[in-house]
Amino acid sequence: MGKRYSQILRLLDNQEFMSVSQLSQILEVSPMTIRRDLDEMESKKLIRRLHGGAAAIKTQNNEPFYRDRAVVQVDEKRLIAQIANELVQDNSIIAVDSGSTCFELVKLLQNRPITVVTNSFPVMEGLLYSNTVKVIVPCGNLRSHEGAISGSDTIEYLSKLHVDQFFMGVGGIDSNAGITDYNIEDAAVKRIIISNASKVIVLADSSKYNRVTFANICPVSELDILVSDSKPAGKLYENLQRSGVQIITPSEAKEDR
């Protein structure tokens, strides 16, 4: 089901509207199954349900729960994580953001000799039994919706730390709005880590392209690398290129080997 959700999101990203019958034919499942999928996806705030079909949510102010985001675009997130893992150098200090794509990366870091700074409880849990990873956790307030620590104490603590790389999850990437997230406090945490990171690496599947969420993080010019399942197009691609952001997708990563 998670894979079909990912397919539906990708199809809707390329169309203003798709009918139940169109989705049924493309995905080769019954209209009843599509209706059930769309109803479930709307309840998780992943799409906008319309009469006879659905549309993508291009601007999102309501943050889906972490557990709901974790079951969509799973294959894409794993590919992104594999590429990101190759960017991590042994004995380095990295910051790993909250978010389901970042958690896929953590699964690959468990035996690496590195130091990880994180405010994410899923990331902490993923590294709990590692014998090689040193984990540094800031103080602050737990935001249970996301499973992340945030607040003024978190920002003060993180302001004193410098990291080699920051692997960041985002709510949206847009040519005009830049990099955005769902929550103001989470965005503030990301900004302070960006200011103290030698390299900023965004991990984002293509469903985040041309999407604007509630809280501003930074312009695209502050990114060093974007790792995604496919390249963006149009103005977003032009803006990233103009800003000198390196874009790495599975096809580019394969060519480099």
For the sheet with most strands, the description reads: 7 strands, parallel
Distance between the first and last residues' Cα: 33 Å
**Run of helices and strands:** HEHHEEEHHEHEHEEEHEEEHEEEEHEH
Structural class from helices and strands?
alpha/beta
Shape: globular
Enumerate how many helices there are, as a single number. 11
Gyration radius over CA: 18 Å
Number of strands: 17
Oligomeric state of this protein? single chain
What is the top-level CATH class of the largest domain? Alpha Beta
Supply the CATH architecture of the largest domain: 3-Layer(aba) Sandwich
Report the average pLDDT across residues: 88
Helical residue percent band: 25-40%
Side-by-side strand order of the widest sheet? 7-6-5-10-13-16-17
Q: What labels would you give this structure?
A:
257 residues, alpha/beta, Arc Repressor Mutant, subunit A, Rossmann fold, 17 strands
Summarize the structure.
This protein has helices spanning 2-13, 20-27, 31-43, 66-69, 74-87, 100-109, 121-126, 152-158, 184-195, 234-242, 250-256, and strands spanning 18-19, 47-50, 53-56, 59-60, 93-96, 115-118, 134-136, 141-143, 148-150, 163-168, 172-174, 178-181, 197-203, 212-213, 215-218, 225-227, 246-248.
